[in-house]
Amino acid sequence: MYIKKLTNLWVFLGLLFGAVVAIAEEQAPIKSVSVQVNWHHQYQFAGFYAALAQGYYRDEGLDVTIKDWRPGLDIVDEVVSGRATFGTAYSSAVVDFIHGAPIAAVMTSFQFSPMVLLSKEPITHLSQLSGKTVSHYNNLQILALLNRAEQDLTAPLITIPPSGDLNDFINKKIDLYGAYETNEPYQLKEHNLSYHLVKPADFGVNSMEDIVIVAQKFADRYPDVVERFRRATVAGWRYAIDNQPEVVAFIMQNYPVVKSEQALVYEAQATTKYVRVGRIPIGAIDASRVLATAAEARDIGLITDSLFNQFSPKAFIFNSTGLGSLTEEERAFLHQNPVIRIGNDINWAPFEFIDAKGQYAGMVADYFRLFEQRLGVRFEPQKNTTWSETLSKVQQGEIHLLSGATPTPERLEYLKFTQPYLTFPMVLAGNPDTFFINHYQELEGKTVAVVRDYWSHEYLQNNYPQVNLYLVDSVLEGLQAVMSGKAFVYSGNLAVINYIMRQQGITGMQIVGQSDQRFELAIGVPRDNPLLFSIMQKALDDITLDEHNAIYAKWVNLSLLTRLDNRQLFQLLIYGLLIAFALIAWIVVYRVQKQQLKVFLSQVNELSYASHIDPHTYKIVWASDSYTKLTGYSSSELAELSILDLMRVKMSEDELAMIVNQVMKGDSWTGEIEGQSKQGVSYWVEITLSPQRNLFGKVEKLLATRVNITDKKRLETQSIEDELTGLYNRRYLLQLFDKELGRLKRLNHTLCLAVFDLDYFKLINDTYGHEQGDQVLQQISMLSKVYFGRANDYVFRLGGEEFLIMTSNQSSTVFMEQLEKFRLAIITARIPNESTELGWLSLSLGAGVWASDSISAFKDVYRDLDNALYLAKNLGRNKLVMIDEDTQAQPST
């Protein structure tokens, strides 16, 4: 009995131990990672502390250590070297990346930088910085601010190396002291010391701060770890914002804090507005904001124009899937389905096929390899299944999607298709003696070979029932049916036919007809799986133009076809010298090969939005289908237009003539042009003009090829626009001014400028709150666009409540009348400002009109404008002062 009980005990313990081991094996191993912060422990890093305290990291399978900071520490070097897994870096990390640092941005703690300059006096204009001493840590925001100030300075700034001692500012050794708005101001308040903040954002400088970075090598190897860390840290920030006292207590108890608990509480309250901003998700990194940061770095000389132009913000931003827009539900689907079975064609080169090594290959296969990298799953192809069997399997739910198929009425009943990602014409291949077939109706009564269940099979069956179909199982079998006389022609995809003919060495066939229909290859997903459909469409949208072009160039090899032509032509030419019959044969083969080359060049032209331009009239004499779609005009409409008519901002004929003269000399020209479609939609292209010569060497037309850079330009536009108002920012003013001035000098036009400032705007913020203040700024901006909305009118937000209007070719009287109407419109709008005598918002303006040839730089006129604005305010505000020879005020009522 005792032995039996003992045996049972051991059995129980064995089962218990086995269960414990099984549970342990099921749990993911804990990954140890570290975070290097860039300052002393404080609420600035609350997201990390809260995620640690609440177990968010542990829930994600991470063991996180937050490393102490020490003076002289290089955060980027710590991360790249591997001494820290993650690091909190300043926005200058963008510059480090552009210069080659192998890092990626995981998230940002602060959507807006809290970096400021402390000052003993209020600074409302950058000219007030003249001759002052400044101490800072070369933060990008401060450097950009000081760079903007240079043109307004009457005496240079004196930079003092930072000591880190706030007493330098308190004891007036330093006029301007670089600080975090969440830190040093509290220390000054504790000592009842007065101070003022110079915020870079008020002067148009604004970027993210405390960007969490990781080494690219680590991100490539452990993308899931990086994503889990990001997810837990964002959750930590959410908790920290809502539970500030608790997180403050945790920091004080567990880390060596160099400030008081009260200071930490102040910091917590001040930090929230930088972490959670409107509808922007916590931690989110916007590509346009990154590009704007790079533009600031370029403006202050930290990077060159060339490096800036090559910079891709998306390359800097980490994304575990490459698809930041995936929902939590979509991510969960991918996590639950690490292997997705795809329905593919095993014998449809160059689109997709199983090669001699048994591997899935082709254009479609290359796309799905990119999808694997972005989505973090594996796509499993079929290797021994015919296309008909594949279609049956997808209907029965045995496979998850069709990799590349054309939407047809039958397929649309059970599949939902993404946007097409490959498109080629449907053509007819026949013997050399077959006359060209202009329309498929000419095939009635004839036998046409098609691959069973391909789109061409369904298309002919539904639309041309009088055509006799000869069904085959592969493209090669279809071509062989034509060569053997079993079929009159083969109907299929141009790219596939060309690939098979080259691969098999088939020379006795040619393209004898082309349908107006095209093979529009898309991804087909069963209609009962909307999650997977959404994921695949987003993955497809994430493929870049360069990636599309690289796949196309890999499989549609024009250079190979050209080399083949030259070799054949050379051989046939030798035979032609021997006998006349060989010469005739050479002409026939030449025509066939040139026709094929023409067809493929047509494909290239479609990809490059190509057109031909008359170099004398600038008229468009021919346009590709893709270019007509881009412009919205038909070919006949384009033939009546010159390229000047298609530009959104008209180029002068003189400028165009200079470009055309360069091309006529035999050189190509490349530049960026903003176009406008027939529907008024703006688009940007990088256009290349190349000379096209006739047999006598004379340039008779220009070939224009284009790359659509609309998305890139949209990012650039966001970097030159003020985020709140949508007006141009100060950076763009400085970029545009010299160019606009040069244009006005050539035209001998006047330059008209006005600076205006919202009267007592601070009272609106104090009385109604900053959110209401932002709405007022937006309302004023919209009104300014109404009154200054001509093609040559520009309105800029210089910073805070100060704006600038720039226009041209007006007299002082006309410009003054226009400004007066604008000033009165603000009063009429009755925007409440109850704390003022008027009771409504008003504005003060300083303005002037100059002969353009009397100006050499913006600073030549800005100081006069600033003085006029100052005079308008001294006259009681709500006034307009026009600069004339005596700089006298024009009173306003």
Automatic annotation (TrEMBL):
<dbReference type="InterPro" id="IPR050469">
    <property type="entry name" value="Diguanylate_Cyclase"/>
</dbReference>
<dbReference type="Pfam" id="PF09084">
    <property type="entry name" value="NMT1"/>
</dbReference>
<dbReference type="InterPro" id="IPR015168">
    <property type="entry name" value="SsuA/THI5"/>
</dbReference>
<dbReference type="InterPro" id="IPR001638">
    <property type="entry name" value="Solute-binding_3/MltF_N"/>
</dbReference>
<dbReference type="Pfam" id="PF00990">
    <property type="entry name" value="GGDEF"/>
</dbReference>
<keyword id="KW-0812">Transmembrane</keyword>
<dbReference type="GO" id="GO:0052621">
    <property type="term" value="F:diguanylate cyclase activity"/>
</dbReference>
<feature type="signal peptide">
    <location>
        <begin position="1"/>
        <end position="24"/>
    </location>
</feature>
<dbReference type="InterPro" id="IPR043128">
    <property type="entry name" value="Rev_trsase/Diguanyl_cyclase"/>
</dbReference>
<keyword id="KW-0472">Membrane</keyword>
<dbReference type="GO" id="GO:0005886">
    <property type="term" value="C:plasma membrane"/>
</dbReference>
<dbReference type="GO" id="GO:0043709">
    <property type="term" value="P:cell adhesion involved in single-species biofilm formation"/>
</dbReference>
<keyword id="KW-1133">Transmembrane helix</keyword>
<dbReference type="InterPro" id="IPR035965">
    <property type="entry name" value="PAS-like_dom_sf"/>
</dbReference>
<feature type="domain" description="GGDEF">
    <location>
        <begin position="749"/>
        <end position="885"/>
    </location>
</feature>
<dbReference type="InterPro" id="IPR000700">
    <property type="entry name" value="PAS-assoc_C"/>
</dbReference>
<protein>
    <recommendedName>
        <fullName>diguanylate cyclase</fullName>
        <ecNumber>2.7.7.65</ecNumber>
    </recommendedName>
</protein>
<dbReference type="Pfam" id="PF00497">
    <property type="entry name" value="SBP_bac_3"/>
</dbReference>
<keyword id="KW-0732">Signal</keyword>
<dbReference type="InterPro" id="IPR000160">
    <property type="entry name" value="GGDEF_dom"/>
</dbReference>
<dbReference type="InterPro" id="IPR001610">
    <property type="entry name" value="PAC"/>
</dbReference>
<feature type="domain" description="PAC">
    <location>
        <begin position="669"/>
        <end position="721"/>
    </location>
</feature>
<feature type="transmembrane region" description="Helical">
    <location>
        <begin position="569"/>
        <end position="590"/>
    </location>
</feature>
<dbReference type="GO" id="GO:1902201">
    <property type="term" value="P:negative regulation of bacterial-type flagellum-dependent cell motility"/>
</dbReference>
<dbReference type="InterPro" id="IPR029787">
    <property type="entry name" value="Nucleotide_cyclase"/>
</dbReference>
<dbReference type="Pfam" id="PF13426">
    <property type="entry name" value="PAS_9"/>
</dbReference>
<dbReference type="InterPro" id="IPR000014">
    <property type="entry name" value="PAS"/>
</dbReference>
